[in-house]
């Protein structure tokens, strides 16, 4: 059984090596990377990985007017020529965590055509993200996740009197699907469009989740803000703004200066004591606790 990963990347030089290593370690047989305008050395790292036959990468400048059409064309060509049984969709900061350590033997995968895989943010402290250096089942107890949804998160973030951090939210799931069931891909890989007149079975597996690492260092955050700002300016000039889909990036793009950016990053950091309190309340749980295999 062969799994292909379609990976979206922009400015992830700090994570791209770990991303590729982890995909290989969980049984992914083919890695297709779409870089959409990195300026931080990510492409150079991909060039080193591309020496192995299981990885290919494409560079698409997302500031170009035809970027989406080109990406969709490459998606179709890749999927049409692939011999994969299953396809997963992710960004380079999203680590798929199967309960067994092997994505090919997830029990619930066998019972469905499309999986909606739960995705949780990884807390970050002043020392970095709470992500063990080896993402294997024996270390899942060390992998901490924000698992409790925050009601009205977007409104609370706009309230200057509220100390809520964006990282406390629970992001939307990502998709895994049988290749023959993929007629199209929803924006961001959150879902797939199945062929017409086909009754595809769907499930949300309990033996699989995604650890999302949106924050690591202030340098990475500042770099991503700079590039996303340029992207928005281009899209707005073309009359193709994406307010609803990218509201959190819109919000961060409005930060007025370096001090405001640093303050926003600092808001995402949690002390060990605070993490302990949130664990007591069930807001933070480990991957081992969340992977309930029935």
- Second rung of CATH, namely the architecture: Alpha-Beta Complex
Q: Which CATH class is shown? A: Alpha Beta
Enter the CATH topology name.
Answer: Spore Coat Polysaccharide Biosynthesis Protein SpsA, Chain A
Give the beta-strand count: 16
Global Rg: 19 Å
Q: Roughly what percent helix?
A: 25-40%
Uncertain runs:
none
Order of strands, widest sheet: 3-2-1-4-11-6-14
- The total domain count is 1
Shape by Cα distribution: globular
Mean pLDDT: 89
| Main sheet summary | 7 strands, mixed
Secondary structure tally, helices? 9
Set out the fold topology.
Elements: E1 3-9, H1 16-25, E2 30-35, H2 42-49, E3 55-59, H3 67-81, E4 86-91, E5 94-98, E6 114-117, E7 119-121, E8 124-125, E9 128-129, E10 144-146, H4 153-158, E11 174-178, E12 184-185, E13 192-193, E14 202-203, E15 208-212, H5 218-237, H6 247-253, H7 258-267, H8 272-280, E16 284-286, H9 287-290
Parallel strand pairs: 1-2, 1-4, 2-3, 6-14, 7-15
Antiparallel strand pairs: 4-11, 5-15, 6-11, 8-9, 10-16, 12-13
Helix pairs in contact: 5-6
């Amino acid at each position: 059984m062969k799994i292909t990963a379609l990976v979206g990347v922009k400015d992830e030089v700090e994570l791209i090596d770990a991303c590729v290593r982890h995909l290989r370690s969980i049984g992914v047989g083919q890695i297709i990377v779409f870089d959409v305008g990195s300026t931080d050395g990510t492409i150079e790292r991909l060039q080193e990985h591309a020496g192995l036959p299981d990885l290919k990468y494409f560079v698409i400048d997302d500031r170009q007017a035809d970027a989406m059409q080109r990406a969709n064309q490459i998606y179709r060509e890749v999927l049409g020529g692939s011999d994969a049984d299953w396809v997963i969709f992710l960004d380079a900061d999203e680590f798929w965590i199967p309960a067994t350590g092997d994505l090919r033997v997830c029990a619930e995968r066998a019972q469905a055509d499309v999986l909606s895989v739960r995705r949780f943010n990884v807390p970050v402290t002043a020392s970095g993200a709470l992500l063990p250096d080896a993402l294997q089942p024996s270390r899942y107890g060390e992998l901490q996740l924000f698992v409790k949804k925050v009601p009205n998160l977007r409104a609370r973030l706009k309230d200057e009197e509220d100390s809520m951090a964006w990282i406390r939210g629970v992001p939307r799931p990502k998709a895994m699907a049988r290749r023959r069931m993929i007629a199209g891909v929803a924006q961001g890989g959150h879902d797939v469009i199945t062929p017409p007149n086909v009754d595809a079975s769907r499930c949300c597996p309990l033996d699989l989740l995604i650890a999302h690492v949106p924050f690591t260092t202030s340098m990475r955050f500042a770099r991503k803000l700079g590039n996303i700002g340029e992207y928005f300016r281009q899209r707005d000039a073309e009359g193709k703004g994406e307010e609803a889909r990218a509201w959190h990036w819109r919000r961060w793009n409005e930060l007025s200066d370096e001090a405001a950016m640093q303050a926003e990053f600092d808001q995402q950091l949690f002390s060990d004591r605070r993490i302990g309190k949130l664990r007591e309340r069930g807001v933070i749980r480990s991957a081992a606790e969340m992977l309930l295999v029935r």
